[in-house]
Amino acid sequence: MTSVPGTADDPTNRTLPELFLRNAREHPDLPALSWREPGTTDWTTLTWSQAHDTVAALTEGYAALGVRPGDHVLLMMGNRPEHWLSDMALVHAGAVPTTVYSTAAPEQISYICRHSRARLAVVEDADVASHWEKLLDDPRTPLETLVVVDQPDPGRGHTPYTGLADTVPAGAFERWHDLTPDRLVTVVYTSGTTGDPKGAAITHRQVLAQATSLDAAVELPDHPSHVCYLPLAHIAERLLTLYLPLFRASHVWMCADPAALAGVLPEVRPPHFVGVPRVWEKLATAVRASLAALPEEIATVIDSAREVATEYNGYLERGEEVPAELQERYRGVRESVLTPLLARLGLDRVVLPSSASAPMPVDVLRFWSSLGINIMDVWGLTESVGVATLNNPAPGRHRLGSVGRPVDGVQMRVAEDGEVFLRGPSMFRGYLRADGSVAAAVDEDGWFPTGDVGRVDDDGFLWITDRKKEIIVTSGGKNVSPALVENTLKEHPLVGQALAHGDNRPFLVALLVLDPEMTPLWARERGIDAEGADLSTHPEVLAEVERAVAAANARLSRPEQVKRHRVLSGEWGPDTGELTPSLKLRRRVVVNRYTKDLEALYQD
């Protein structure tokens, strides 16, 4: 039966609290939320019925603190149950929750607090609260109440989280009945590679339009499990572990420390796993290191199985019928070799392994494909409420290196300069203004300019080449995609991170960061003492990187080739500022930080 938009059977004509109530009534005993208490290895779980009761009680608690319908409330916590439950409770109270990245600088926190006009914030502990306390007395911000989950200090103006759920009910929980699908459900502030973050205003209807499209795109088991490990300030994690679980009655497993992901995945074995490219790269590095340490006879068996998987998946990618003999061989190696190997990683039941946020190096895609994991690159933005285009695991419905085709309801066009435009029911409402109104961000025909540059092939697959603002234009007038150059450089296992530079310059140069896992392994295999050494200055390592750059240049056009490079010590990350919290490269930060190094590469 096909639903008609705007009618009662339209799945987008609902609100998230309606879905929460449905799950509590129809699936009361199914698990909804699991987490580990600090210092323990056992999981604590709430069923959908228990989660609903907890959210109802928390809603009353936040209302007693003065939260009113339409209020904006800020959250700064890791992936813990209090975060998930508080977000749900605030939505039920009619408020608009926003998660702030835990890595946000004090000036960013202050800006978001002023811009959102939030009167209440909920933060993780007393240490985090120290960055917020001064805002309570700042006349430029309306912040009045600071709720602290762990180790609150009332003497510092903290309101304890503990006890909120014990508030005497006063009917606040019933406010959700007044919500309409076109009310805001959240404002997501972009992490931003430059300038102040922008607040993308998103409604219940837009979230459910996105959920409906994704549910139709890929068939997952009923009530699937999801691992929540990426920041909930990012639209991808909000969609996967806050909104889609309500739509699917899923089970959310909270992974408080992303570094513990490798240990959590084998326990959960999710059918859908999303990792930004850097996550897949790090997992691949760890697997490669493990394979390299295996005895030769076992490594030979695995290599043979990978060759079969590569051949088999090539047919699927091309949309060609797989020969019966190859199907049988693949079935055999999948069962005897690849599935046991993937089970150790917790990826043996994945039917939709996905990557988003930035272009995935093709060699990483090929590596996982050889293990039977076809990573489906997807593409979207905060403004598209997540996924706009998607590769599908079905034969002929994916192309490695592309970001797939538009999901149901999303329309796409490419302008003459290559910029990709989107429109559809899942596009955000617009950007929040400081006065609380929302500014539309589309043209008169409803098209939103994404700022991404790409091309569409004859089969309708979109290939993203770069950000429009990041295209390098050399002094010779040649346009170069830095992402293409960087991903080609990173195909060598020693190169973990790269920045290509050369705007208004006669040629390109690059800053390279060694992979912290593979480099010591490579060094030990060659008898180099890697213990405590700075390998970024070792002659043999530098010589190998030189060969890696030469190999990359052999595959690049003349304007794209890197003429000079410098190897740096120390990995780039969100904590040191070179990456956004969603692990995108902050080019301006890197260029400003290494200006002298870059200038030196242009000296004769």
Automatic annotation (TrEMBL):
Give any Pfam family that matches. Answer: AMP-binding_C_3
Q: Which UniProt keywords apply?
A: Fatty acid metabolism, Ligase, Lipid metabolism
Q: Which reaction does it catalyse?
A: a long-chain fatty acid + ATP + CoA = a long-chain fatty acyl-CoA + AMP + diphosphate
Matching entries from SUPFAM superfamilies are given as: Acetyl-CoA synthetase-like
Domain of life per record: Bacteria
Q: Which residues form the AMP-dependent synthetase/ligase domain?
A: 22-432
Tell me which stretches of the chain form a coiled coil.
Answer: none
The answer to whether UniProt assigns keyword Ligase to this entry is yes
Keyword Cell inner membrane in annotation: no
Q: Which family does it belong to?
A: Belongs to the ATP-dependent AMP-binding enzyme family.
The molecule here is called Acyl-CoA synthetase
**Taxonomic source organism:** Nocardiopsis exhalans
